[in-house]
Design goal:
The protein is mostly helical. It contains eight helices and no strands. The model has no long low-confidence stretch (mean pLDDT 84).
Length: 181
C-alpha cells in the first residue's frame, strides 16, 4: 500500500466513529432521536472502527522511526522557549516579563539565524541580567522535558508512569475479554 494512501487512512481513524452521531464510547449524541433509530448508526460506526483496527495494528508493527533525526528535530527551533521563560521565573522574574524577554531573544535568534544556545551570554544579559552561564543547561532536551513534571506531562518519570498505567489497563481489558470469550 502506498505510503500516502496508508497515511490518509490512518488519519481517518480518530473520526471514523464520530460521523454517525456517536462518540468513541458509543454514547448517542443526538437527543431528538429515540434509541431504536440510533442503533443502526451505532452498529455502522462500530463496524467501521473495528474494520480499521487491523490497519492501525499493521501500521504500528511496520512503522520505523529515525530516532536520531527525531532527537535533532526536538532540539532545534524554539521548543525550548518555555524552558527559557521558566529559567527566568525561577530567578524571580515575573512570568509576563520572562515571556516578553524570551520572545525578544527568539526574535534576535531569527534575525541572526541561530538558536538560543548560540546567543552569547552578553546579549542575553542585555535582555535581562538574570541570565547566567547555567542558562544554557536548561535548553537541553532532557531539561526541557523535565520541567513538565505534572500528570500527563513530558517529564521522563511521568511518561514511564503513563506507560505503566496503560499496560495495566490493556492487561485488565484483555483479562475481561478472555473471561467473556
Amino acid at each position: 500500500m502506498p505510503h500516502a494512501d496508508l497515511c490518509s487512512r490512518m488519519a481517518k481513524i480518530p473520526g471514523a466513529s464520530d460521523r454517525s452521531g456517536t462518540s468513541a464510547i458509543g454514547a448517542v449524541s443526538y437527543t431528538h432521536l429515540d434509541l431504536q433509530e440510533t442503533q443502526e448508526p451505532l452498529f455502522d460506526a462500530t463496524e467501521t472502527v473495528l474494520s480499521l483496527v487491523p490497519l492501525a495494528t499493521g501500521w504500528m508493527k511496520a512503522v520505523e522511526f529515525d530516532h536520531d533525526r527525531m532527537q535533532n528535530a526536538a532540539q532545534t527551533g524554539f521548543m525550548n522557549a518555555w524552558a527559557a521563560a521558566t529559567y527566568l521565573v525561577q530567578r524571580g522574574v515575573a512570568f509576563r516579563l520572562a515571556h516578553e524577554q524570551v520572545g525578544k531573544a527568539v526574535q534576535l535568534c531569527l534575525e541572526k539565524g541561530c538558536q538560543f544556545q548560540d546567543l552569547p551570554l552578553e546579549e542575553l544579559k542585555k535582555l535581562n541580567p538574570a541570565f547566567d552561564r547555567d542558562f544554557y543547561s536548561c535548553l537541553h532536551l532532557e531539561a526541557v522535558l523535565a520541567i513538565h513534571d505534572v500528570p500527563g506531562g513530558t517529564a521522563p518519570a511521568r511518561v514511564r508512569q503513563a506507560l505503566t498505567d496503560a499496560k495495566q489497563r490493556i492487561g485488565s481489558i484483555r483479562e475481561e475479554i478472555h473471561a467473556h470469550a
